[in-house]
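Here comes my example:
=====
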Amino acid sequence: MLAGPVISKLDKHGFQLRLFSRTVNSSIFNKDYDIIPGDIFNPDDLNEAIDGCDAIHITIAKLDEKEAVKTIVEAAKKKGIKLISMVSGCTVSEENRWFKFIDNKFQAEQFIINSRIPYLIFRPTWFFESLDLMIRNGKATLLGNQPHPYHWIAADDFAQLIVTAFSKKEAFNNIFYIYGPETYLMKDLLERYCKVFYPEIKKVDVVSIPFLKFIAMLTGNKELKNATALFSYFQKVSEPEITSQTDDLLGKPELDFEKWIALKK
């Protein structure tokens, strides 16, 4: 969802890339990249992946992010890496560390900031591309009522901002909040998304968080438990207000929902 657009934009702007992941393979790309499959926690794999590189861009979905980033930073110091960037989240902050997922990201950020290696930390809001994850078995389901509006952003816009940040030394050693040009409520946006791509889905089902917690406990479904905890968090926590620092240094994202839809059709 995020790595693909970033890879494409970096490649287009002349960066030489090496891709390192447990699952990445050449069949998902239209170009032959330097690909190393492996495990971050295997020193030989990690050293092979970053050997000869100038910079590392970290985008992690399911690993223990805090420990993974700590391991990467330690290896980066030994290899003389000149820049580390990381995809974090817009609500990551000291006051939100009560939620384990956020605390892991916060501590991961601190490992990078305290490494004395120049860094770029990106704190994006919700992505348009994540809407499709809410469609399962012919149904659109929202976990909780999600009352907070967010500046939803397109992954392509996000990728372009990363490229710009990598290309500007004055952008280094900053935390950037990445927001789209307009705000949307999650349910409203999911309904609009369904009208375009899933017209057979006539309504969005909203399932209460307490009910989901009960079902997750009853079934022992770990995936449902984690998803419920995440959406429960976002039901409580709103998107923080930010300054214009990102726009001033990296430029403004251009794609609102209608423009993004037009590109995806």
